[in-house]
Every structure is written in C-alpha cells, then in structure tokens.
From TrEMBL:
Pfam families referenced in this protein's UniProt entry, alphabetically: TamB
Keyword Transmembrane annotated: yes
Entry-linked InterPro entries: TamB_C
Gene Ontology BP term (one): protein secretion
Subcellular location(s) per record: Membrane
Domain Translocation and assembly module TamB C-terminal, first and last residues per copy: 20-249
Keyword Ribosomal protein: no
Name of the molecule in the record: Translocation and assembly module protein TamB
Record keywords: Membrane, Transmembrane, Transmembrane helix
Coiled coil start-end: none
Entry membrane topology: Single-pass membrane protein
Major localisation: membrane
A GO-annotated cellular component: plasma membrane
Lineage per the UniProt record: Bacteria, Pseudomonadati, Pseudomonadota, Alphaproteobacteria, Rhodobacterales
C-alpha cells in the first residue's frame, strides 16, 4: 500500500520538488561496442552516475578489449580505443590503429565527441597526412601509387568521415544476432570466416572456418575481472588451454 502525503510544499504551484542525490556505478567488463566507418571494437569499463536527478553527471571510461579497422580491404588492428564520459551523455572517443612500413610507423586516429569525431593521420617520423594514409593502405609512399589507388584514398577518407555504410558483413552480423562476424585473410591469401557470440555474461565463444574446411572453436571464460580461462579445439584434434591474468597498474 502506498499513498501520497501532501505536506503543502506544492500548494500554489510555486515550489519545486527537491532533487534526489545520485551515486550509481554501472560495471560492464565487456560488450560495449563501437561500430561504423569500418571500425569494429569491443570495450569494457565502468560508468559512475552522480549529481542529482535535476543535474545528472556521468563519468567513467571504457577501454579496448579487441578491435579492428577495415579500410578498402586493408585490416588494421587497433592499438588503442577509449570511450569516455566527462560530465554529459555525449561520450568522447579515441581510437588508434597503426602499422609499420619501411621503418615508418603510420597511424590513423579517430577522436572527438562520438556524434562528430575527427579523423587524422600521423607517423614517426612525421609525414604529410596523405602520405601516411597511402602507407597505411598500400604500404608505400604517395608518389609510388597508381591513379586508381589515388582514387581509393578519397574513398577511404569518405568512409572514415561517415559517408559509407556498414557493408554486407555488418548486415549479416546483425541478421544472425552475432556479436562479431569477420572475414580474415592470411599472408598466403587464404580466407576464413570467424563468428563470435556471448553465451552468457562471462562466456564468449568464437568459431573459425577456413576455405580448406579446417575449423577451430575458441572459448573465453572470465572467472573474475582479472582472470580469464581460454581454450580452443581444432577440427584436426588439436587442443589448448590457458589461464591469463590481466592487471592494470
């Protein structure tokens, strides 16, 4: 049974209700996804909701677990991914993917408010951004690429700027209800299909099937926040099992 007790504070319509204080922590060690513009990343972290019901103040950060960036069929593994709330509900995002060619480390950086991030390119040693993008995609300098590849550079910039769709693989992932779906190619050009799905809050399974019929299933069990058991079994009978301890300092 519940009833409203009228204390008289609201009579006359001039008094405002007193806001309630907030102190709520939301923990999500995984399954925070950033997808789009060729980006597919999974993050985990914590969010603190403070302030009052009249002025909600969110703060917290989610960091990279795994991720990749695909541009024109070129696969770049993420070295950094951060999604951070700094007082409002429009998060700040920073994503970095890099590779090395001819002793030059080239990086693409996506950062800014999530509704309007900026894309930039950098390198060590420092080179012009067009030169960096050329090395990221084609492994060689701007003066060494063809006219077709130069046109592809413009297409890559358009994709990163948000003028491209999620593609066929992204549509299939959503259609089958998977958490991850990817087509990977090894150094010999052989392709394989990889599909991943969370079976529960702390169990993630991944199946990989190669074009020659070979298959492998991987299983990740998060025992605690810092301890993960990883096992795999291949179609050829090979198995592996490992315990991994991860700690941030």
């Amino acid at each position: 049974r519940a009833r409203l007790i009228d204390t008289g504070a609201s009579r006359g319509g001039g008094a405002a209700r007193r806001p309630f204080g907030l102190n709520l922590t939301i923990s999500s060690p995984d399954r925070i996804f950033i997808r789009g513009r060729g980006l597919d990343a999974e993050l985990g972290g914590e969010l603190l909701i403070s302030g009052t019901t009249a002025n909600v103040v969110p703060s917290g950060a989610f960091n990279l677990i795994r991720g990749r960036l695909d541009i024109l069929g070129k696969r770049l593994v993420l070295s950094e991914a951060l999604l951070q709330l700094q007082g409002d509900f429009v998060p700040y995002v920073r994503v970095v993917a890099s590779n090395e060619s001819d002793g030059i480390i080239s990086s693409v950086v996506i950062q800014g408010q999530v509704n309007e991030p900026e894309v930039s390119f950098s390198s060590v040693p420092e080179l012009p951004q067009e030169e960096v993008l050329s090395r990221l995609l084609f492994g060689r300098g701007l003066t060494s690429i063809s006219a077709l590849q130069a046109a592809q550079l413009a297409s890559a910039v358009a994709t990163l700027a948000g003028r491209g769709g999620q593609g066929i693989v992204g549509n299939l992932r959503e259609g089958f209800g998977l958490d991850d779906l990817d087509i990977v190619t090894d150094a010999e050009g052989d392709a394989s299909l990889r599909a991943g799905k969370y079976l529960s809050e702390n169990v993630y399974t991944e199946i990989e099937v190669g074009q020659q019929g070979q298959s492998q299933i991987n299983l990740n069990l998060d025992v605690t926040r810092n301890v993960t058991v990883r096992g795999s079994a291949g179609g050829d009978g090979g198995t592996s099992l490992g315990v991994f301890i991860e700690k941030d300092y």
